[in-house]
Amino acid sequence: MTPRFDFPFAQASRRRAYRHHVIAACAVALGIGGLALAPADFAAAQETTNSATTGSSDAGGGGFDFNSSSKPIEITADNGIEWDKNQKAYTARGNALAVQGDQSIAGAVLNAYYSVDSNKIDRMTAEGNVVIKNSTQTAYGDHADYDAQKKLLVLTGKNLKSVTDKGDTVTARDSMEYWKDRDAVIAKGAVFIDRGDTKIHSDTATGYFHPDDTGKKVMYQIEAVGHVRTDTSKQTAWADKMVYNLDTKVAVLTGHVRINQDNNVFTGDKAEINTQTNISRLVADKSKGSSGRVKTVIGPKNKTDSNGSTTQP
Length: 313
What we know:
The protein has 313 residues and is mainly beta.
């Protein structure tokens, strides 16, 4: 199946040439969250497309991956698609949209750049109301920039957000970075992670991915650093750093740890919190001697008056 492209070129020969190069450009287009924007040879991709009827498109870490060569890329734009051979660049303008299987990237303008081989893209950018989707999550921003050599995509903008199909939400002020080789996504600046009953605030946060039983890469660990605060239905905890395992539901907090639960306050250098059972454990840092001791302050119980309101004694 040959991808359909909408662009305003009059001459048929030019149209075929542009189509060839635009497909080649977009066949290596953005993939995030473990990002694989691996350059692909267009002829080989077409041969695979013609011989294969199925294929996985989003097994990459982080849930975004435009690296599948078994499905064609379709590019559409309101104002046309241009190929500038002198500048070695492709540009799609006006509600530009690139789709491969169940994945897509949209923006007001999409740009792709190459250095030598027009079938191998060195860099791609998306500008204006950028939306990147696949079957499990959607990311939003104002600007996306992909470096093929580093296999890194950086999403920036005023309202950075990533939402999964399970309703988990991550927002950040400065940037979101998606690293293919690391199977990691990094959110920077006033990060807020909303996972239903568990909410995490920090300066930066990194999500790590590994394959599940089906081979699909899913997030299994969150590492939050800097002014960390974790809220659950039963307690609030503060620390310098937190490592949260999504499989075990256990969070390990280190550095200036403080946990508030009801009227009780727990302080120490390290703590383990099970967000599923709401059981917490403080651990002393023996290397600090007496200053590394843990501490618990148990507050008085609340009293309920005759009207049913709760008061402190």
